[in-house]
Amino acid sequence: MPASTSTGEWVIARIGGAPVVISPTSLLLGLLIAGSWYPLVSSALGVFGTTTVLLVVVATVLGVAASVLLHELAHGLAGTLMGRRPARYELYLWGGRTSFGSARDWNAWKDLVTSLSGPATNLLIWGIGTLAQNSVSLSVPVVFTIWAVALVNLALAVFNALPGLPLDGGYALAALVVQVTGNRRLGLKVAAWGGLAVVGGVVWWWILRPLVLYGRQPDVFNLVLVIMVGWSIVASSWQVLELGGGTRAASKLDLRELARPVRVVGPDTPVSQAREALAQGAALVLVTDGPELVGTVDEASLKELGLMDAEGSAPVVGVTVRQVCTVLPAAAVTTELTGQAAADAMKRAREVSRWLVLVEAGSLTGAVPTGAR
């Protein structure tokens, strides 16, 4: 049974240490897709029997889910190859989200490549599926399933490449603007307006066009899908453009103003020195081994292990911080220090760690308590 997070999501796997999570609402969307797909499959393959029709419907939905996973893993692989490891994969049937940890040497063109790797993967799956239909001798139900999954991958590739946040094409557009102008905020705002334009186009094509031009009521499934997808795009664009009171407040957030001091030590540092650093005012001891952040030590973790000095107690001998440090998830490290992006980083870190470690200009500069236990 998948583990559940504090937000109700299910952790179904861990890949390279990064959790793969799925929201229960995605299952509802899966059922909607299956229900809308069944009549078409039944009319095309009814002669093969109800069992075959059901198997094709289930296989198609699972194929779409697998395609979304491969899409997100492509983002993770591209980021890893260029120096930034994924921290979390979130899956939805219409797409997903890959969150990354910190990177010491990162620039806009790498964001562009990472963003477009997902749609490129869906395009590759569509190409493979199309070739398989035409070059391999398979039964009609299997060919029908491959055709359906390939067609959905083509739709995923085209849709995710549209130039609007939070779609991959939107992040690619933002990265392109940043690469040209050096202004990250401008890039995000351009992509956010692109997102609103995408929603307007989707609403026109799927809802208003049939109603205005042909006098037809929009299909219920199309209406539900447009609402679910459009809502996420509008919400993201709204935040970036700071059109709401909450987002305006988040835009003023600066994590550096909340940061507490840290002390960076090597992995073979005695625990006694870590306790001394905490006693001298450091809120968190960061254990590093070269460029790698191994883990953290704070008063709470030492108390849990019975290693925090009590007055008059004998010192702990032969214990190093490597042996007692708490592994810090990638989601608990951020280079986003201000605005909505910083607020989002704090939200993600709260699920996995007591601390959010700040990285500025490649240096570990401080840590903000998340409120988690």
What report would you give on this structure?
It is a single chain. Helices cover 55% and strands 15% of the residues. The strands form three sheets. Strands 1-2-3-4-5 form a five-stranded mixed sheet. It folds into two domains: 242 residues, no CATH class; 107 residues, Roll (CBS-domain), CATH 3.10.580.10. By secondary structure, the protein is of the alpha/beta class. About 1% of the residues have low confidence. The protein has twelve helices and eleven strands. The longest helix has 32 residues. Helix 5 crosses helix 6 and helix 8 crosses helix 12. 35% of the residues are buried.
Strand content: 15-25%
Number of strands: 11
Low-confidence region ranges: 310-314
Radius of gyration: 24 Å
Q: How many angstroms does the end-to-end distance come to?
A: 24 Å
What class, by secondary structure content?
Answer: alpha/beta
Topology order in helix (H) and strand (E) letters = EEEHHEEHHHHHHEHEEHHEHEE
What share of the residues lie within helices?
55-70%
Q: How many H/I helical runs?
A: 12
Strand order of the largest sheet: 1-2-3-4-5
InterPro entries: CBS_dom, CBS_dom_sf
Transmembrane segments: 12-38, 44-70, 138-159, 190-208, 220-241
Protein name: Peptidase M50
GO molecular function: metallopeptidase activity
